[in-house]
Amino acid sequence: MKIKYWSMGVVSALLISGCQMQSPVLEGTLDAIQADSLYLYQVTNDWYGTLEKEAAIPVKDGTFTYSLDSLKSGLYALALENQEMSRVTHFAKFFIEPVPMKVTVRQGDYEELDLQVEGSSLNERYTSFVHGLNVAGNKVMLDSLDRAFYAARDKGDTALMAKIKTESMPYYDKSREQSRLFIDQAILKEQHTAFGLYLYYTYRFQNQTFNTVGAIDTVFQHLQEYPDEARQMVFYSRITDTLERFRKCAIGSKAPFIEGVDANGKQVSLDNFKGRYVLVDFWSSGCHWCRLETPHLQKVYDAFKDKNFTILGVSSDYSKEDWLRAIDEDKSFWNQIIVPRKEIRPLMDRYCIVGIPHIILVDPSGIIIAKDLRGEDIYQTVESYIQNN
C-alpha cells in the first residue's frame, strides 16, 4: 500500500481552495423582532424606492440563512412584509455581494427596519454615501418640516399647512441643489469603480432616454471602462438589457405595434395610418405637462392635416371618463385612442418610454424619424419633412 505524504503548503492550499469553493451565505439575526419569515426584495429603482420580491426567507429561533449563489451584486432590501413592489413600506436597503455576510435586523425609527451589515465592502460604501447625501440635503431638517406639515394636515389646519409649505420651499430648493452637487462629486470620485456603476445607473442612466444608435453605442463604450467586478453586478445587466431595448425603438427603427379603442369604441391601430406621417402623442389626462403640449399639437394639426399628415393620441388613462373629458376640455379632436390597462406597461416598454409626454414622428413607411419632440420643435420637425416630400 502506498502512503502519500502531503506538505503543509499543499494542505494549506487545499484548505484555502475549499473555503473559496464554499457557497456565500447571508446569515442573519433578529434583534427584538418577532417574525417567522423575512422577505428579500431587489431594489429596482433606488430613486423611487420601487422593489421586486426576490425570496421569502424562513426565520427560526430569531435567526436565518440564505444562499447568495443565485444573486448578482446589487442593492436589495429586507422587509417584514410580503407585498407587491408598490406596497412595501417598512424595509431597509443594503448591498449584497457574493461573499459571506452577516446582518442584524432591528426596528428603526418611524416603523422602518434598521440593518447592521458585515462582510460587504460595497455596503460600507453605500452606507457612507447615503449618510453623506442625507447630510448634504439636510434630511433632518426636511423630516421635521414634513412632520409639522402632516401634523397640521391631521388637525385640518389649512392655514398652518399653507404657512409651512411657503416657508419650507427655500429649504427644499437648497436641499435639492446641495444633494445634486454631492451626487455629482460622488460620481466623479467613484468613476470606473464597481460602486461607481451603481451611482451612474441610479443617478444618470435611469433618468435618460437614448434616441439614436450613436447615443446607445456611446454608453456601451463607457461601460467598458468599468472593472470586471462591476460587470458582474445587476446594474450592468440592467443597463445592457435596457440599451438593447432602446436600440429596437431608436430613430430609424420600425415603430412597434400600437392598438387601442377610440371614443366610439372602435379598434384603431397605428397601422391604419400607413402612407401618412403620423405624430404619435403618448399622454394621459392627469399629466399636466402632456396637456401643455396641446396648443403645439393643435398648431401642427391645423397646418398639415390635409398634407399627408395626422396625429394619433395614445392615452394611458385608466378612466375612460377622465380621458374623454380631457379631450373635450382641450379640444384635441384628432385621432385619439385609449390603451387597455393591461397593455399600457408593455406598450411603454416597446417604445422605451421613461415618462410622458412622449411625442414621436413616424414616416409613411412606419419608421420612427424623430423622438422626444416638445414645444415649437414639434411644428418645425413636421414642417421640415412635409416640405421636403
From TrEMBL:
PANTHER family, sorted: THIOL:DISULFIDE INTERCHANGE PROTEIN DSBE
Cellular compartments annotated: Cell envelope
Gene3D superfamilies named in the record: Glutaredoxin
Name of this protein: TlpA disulfide reductase family protein
Organism classification: Bacteria, Pseudomonadati, Bacteroidota, Bacteroidia, Bacteroidales
Thioredoxin domain: residues covered: 249-389
A Pfam family: DUF4369
Protein keywords: Cytochrome c-type biogenesis, Disulfide bond, Redox-active center
